[in-house]
Each structure stands twice: as structure tokens, then as C-alpha cells.
Write a structure and sequence with these properties.
By secondary structure, this protein is mostly beta strands. The chain is built from 1 helix and 15 strands, in the order ββαβββββββββββββ.
């Protein structure tokens, strides 16, 4: 053993005897193990649950993606639309959307030279952004505590190439445990790809 790494791990040198190779490997392994401890490949970080592509649909549902495994979720996607319209979501459980007037949000938006803010309460969906005249929308949506028996919160960031930009926060006022979500344009159809990830606890 002639040298050490930045972490103080021993490494062999060329003049070490071949017969001592097993001991060199053992010493290096022990040093690494002591420094790093127990390796857990799932903590921390995001774990992908699903990626779904769809074409020319009036809505796209994602079933059984929320569970006891994770408390919070990150959803990202890029979609195109046949209309200049809002993009919205609804929670769902047992194959059905929660379509009651239990959603609310506050948003800040900018489109071309227009900048504004808006508050919505008692709505039947959660607005995460809008498609502009280019028909393209990319979004990042955090869904917090959907499976837990407490109110679900949303945070979204969306943008498109015109550019149009939305930042939205809000939630669902019921304490129902939900297992899925539906992506819905206010009008027309959407085409795109969406990935859903769970935040490790």
C-alpha cells in the first residue's frame, strides 16, 4: 500500500507483491464501505412511474399512479393542441374524475406584451396553463399528497414558444384519497408525451 485517494482510501502501487493483492482489495473495499455506509439506490431522488404518449385525444387519464409508495409527485410533459385554449387537470379515483366544484388556484401569466394575475375558486378543474397560437405547451406539475386523506395541493409551471408563460398554485379542497389524474384541454384535442415521477420519502 503506497498511496491514498482524496478520501483516504488505500490503493496499491506497482512495487507491491502480487501475493498481497487480496489484502489490497480488502483494505480498499473496507475503506470505501466505512466512508459511504449503507448504499440505498432509491434515496434521495425521483423515481419514474410511467411515460405515456397519446394522439388527438379530448382528454388523457393516468390511472393508479398515486399510492402509498410516495406522498408527492412530479409530472412533466410536452403537448400540442388543435385550439388556443387552457390546459387543465382533474384528480381521479376508481376510474372516474373528481369533477365537483372543489378546485381553486392563483396564477400569474404573461403572453406577448400582456402580463396579469387571476384567482379562481369553486371550479371543476385546475388550470395549469394555456396553448397559444403555436399550439404547443410544455409543463411541469407538482401534485402534493394526492393519495393521503387530506387536501391535495398543486404547483405548476408552463410555457410555450410564442412565448406564453404561466405559474399556478392551488389545490383541491376535499380530503379524498386519489389514485390518478386526467389532463384536459378546454377545447379541441391534444397530442403529446407525459412522464410521472414519485418523490422518494
Amino acid at each position: 500500500m503506497g498511496t491514498t485517494t482524496n478520501n483516504g482510501w488505500p490503493t496499491p502501487v506497482a512495487t507491491d507483491l502480487v501475493k498481497d493483492g487480496w489484502e489490497a482489495i480488502k483494505d480498499l473495499g473496507d475503506a470505501i464501505d466505512t466512508t459511504l455506509g449503507v448504499y440505498s439506490p432509491t434515496t434521495p431522488g425521483l423515481v419514474k412511474i410511467s411515460t405515456t404518449s397519446f394522439s388527438a385525444v379530448s382528454s388523457q387519464s393516468f390511472n393508479d399512479v398515486f399510492s402509498t409508495t410516495y406522498d408527492n409527485y412530479f409530472i412533466t410533459g410536452v403537448c400540442t393542441s388543435t385550439n388556443t385554449t387552457n390546459m387543465t387537470v382533474r384528480l381521479r379515483v376508481s376510474g372516474s374524475d373528481a369533477s365537483g366544484s372543489n378546485y381553486q388556484n392563483e396564477n400569474i401569466f404573461a403572453s406577448s406584451t400582456t402580463v396579469g394575475a387571476q384567482r379562481q375558486t369553486g371550479t371543476t378543474n385546475f388550470v395549469i396553463g394555456a396553448f397559444n397560437s403555436s399550439g404547443r405547451n410544455s409543463f411541469q406539475l407538482s401534485v402534493l399528497s394526492p393519495f393521503l386523506s387530506q387536501t391535495t395541493n398543486f404547483q405548476s409551471y408552463t410555457g410555450s414558444s410564442e412565448p406564453t408563460w404561466y405559474m399556478v398554485v392551488g389545490g383541491h379542497t376535499l380530503t379524498t384519497s386519489y389514485t390518478g389524474i386526467t389532463l384536459i384541454p378546454d377545447a379541441g384535442t391534444i397530442t403529446g408525451t407525459v412522464s410521472i415521477y414519485g418523490y422518494n420519502k
